[in-house]
Specification:
Strand content: 35-45%
Distance between the termini: 38 Å
Structural class: alpha+beta
Order of helices and strands: HHEEEEEEEEEEE
Number of strands: 11
């Protein structure tokens, strides 16, 4: 079967949806609205970067370390799952100046922190699933990591 063989099925489904005969479920619409609300129109999306193994690190891979680079900024993000909740810790470098805040976001919750003078931050007790970290600096576009999917 080719993709063209499925075209009538897709066309009929699209026509049903357009006519309102096959409406989008409410939970799907709600999820789409919630996702749209999480966008950051001016944000610079940081690219993933290589992270070497830490000194004395064990090979089990827990906690997961991720590094992102953009706009002269490096975000190191460490994610662990404890008792079914996400704990996110990390460091912004170079160390951010005054007025900087770090936002750790999930689709259902989020939390902001002022990083330490050395750029460290931590947020505990978030719901598992998708997580993104955003660095907000005064007079600069926010720098956001891509969304990470974290499971037990």
């Amino acid at each position: 079967m080719t993709d063209d063989d499925h075209l009538p099925t897709y066309l009929l489904a699209a026509l049903r949806m357009a006519a309102g005969a096959d409406p989008v479920p409410g939970r799907v619409s709600a999820a789409a609205r919630a996702t749209f609300a999480l966008r950051l129109p001016r944000a610079v999306v940081a690219s993933p970067a290589e992270v070497g193994p830490g000194v004395g690190a064990r090979s089990e891979g827990r906690p997961a370390m991720h590094r992102f680079d953009a706009d002269g900024l490096t975000l190191d993000v460490e994610v662990t799952v404890a008792d079914g909740r996400l704990d996110v810790a990390g460091q912004v470098s170079p160390a951010p100046g005054p007025g900087t805040r770090i936002e750790v976001r999930t689709p259902g919750a989020g939390s902001s922190r002022v990083p330490s003078e050395t750029g460290h931050f931590a947020v505990a007790g978030l719901p598992p699933g998708w997580v993104s970290v955003v660095c907000h600096r005064p007079d600069r576009a926010p720098v956001a990591t891509r969304w990470l999917h974290v499971r037990d």
